[in-house]
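Researcher: For the annotation table, I need structure tokens for Lytic murein transglycosylase B. Please keep the output clean. Sequence:
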Amino acid sequence: MTSPVRMYDSLPLALSRLTHRPDTGRHPSATLRQHAGKQPVLQLSRPIRALGIALCIGAFALTTTGAHAQTRPKQVAQAEFEEEVVPQRYAANPEVDAFINDIVARDGFERAELQRVFSRVVFSQTAARLAAPPATPGQKNWTKYEKNFLDNTRINGGVRFWNQNAATLSRAAKQYGVPEEIIVAIIGVETIYGRNMGNFRTIDALTTLAFDYPPARNRSERMALFRNELENLLLYARERGVDPFSIYGSYAGAIGIPQFMPSSIRNYAVDYTGDGKINLTTDVADAIGSVANFLRQHGWQPGQPVVWNIAGDRGSQGLAEAGADGQPEPHWKLGDFIKAGMLMNEPRLDVGASLDTPVLIVDLPTPGQATQYRMGLNNFYVLTRYNRSFFYAMSVYDLADAIKAARAP
């Protein structure tokens, strides 16, 4: 959601429902080809791998009848926005031409065919607008954020989804060691169980963000990330023999029920149905298996906790505040805090036996309220690989708890 899934706390929100209107011209029907005798090799630089965290998932492209790629969802989008169409914006564009030269050399594409593809790509004003940082950054608000996900729609929908796919979820939990409720909650947060997968043509969205990313502090790094995802989209389309213009997803290029980015699809998606193809758009089993595989490949530890609760006394909360440095990796040890006087609100925790456990402090601020703190463990860090946001990972965990409780007899 990769590690290249998401960079924004807001990405899984209702923005995924927004759509754009691509051009109505004819698109190349031929699939991308490779020069004879050349092997496709994708070499990611370390900075790009570090920038892309997750998925997502995540962090993305799937199948129609007889094709192995995601195509436009059948449902009618709830909202539609007109686009500022700049004819052939990416044809004979020096930056695009340099990108084409790079992937021709690296991956064996045919230059003329890529030039035809980019002559048809449409600039997505809506994708650029949604990716732009706010003019006046707002305060983080955990209470408001969590309400977007911890609602009856996602809790009750999660129970139904679990019941309808109980056998597949049980199989994935046993195979990958990821609890059913975590898999269900991620899919619930991302797309409300496949209801809102996005209706942007993925090649338009990724090209726009790769070459026309709006002004931002780290604009060049983000464009590098999206160029990597664009390359992965083209590789995926070639590998599956599909028209890259047939693939649809979110404004940031995330695809399917679990909202995987193209690199995540190529690296972590699995054929969990066993039908010989991967379809994250309409095949729920493939989505379930792919989410579980993504988390396990990023270091999920079966049977281990995600977070621990910290006691509410003033001293423990003060120590939590001092340790909340924003780093997502567990880099403290539980003993660092216990020796300083922190108390834990975990009756079943054997503190003495857990002093060497790596931990991090999760801070969840809400304006006008005391900041909430929890202690995150390795599995919490793995959730941030899907979307590198404490708010996101904590929402997934809390939604998972709520769904499990609601489903209990």
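Researcher: And a one-line annotation?
Model: The chain has 16 helices and six strands.
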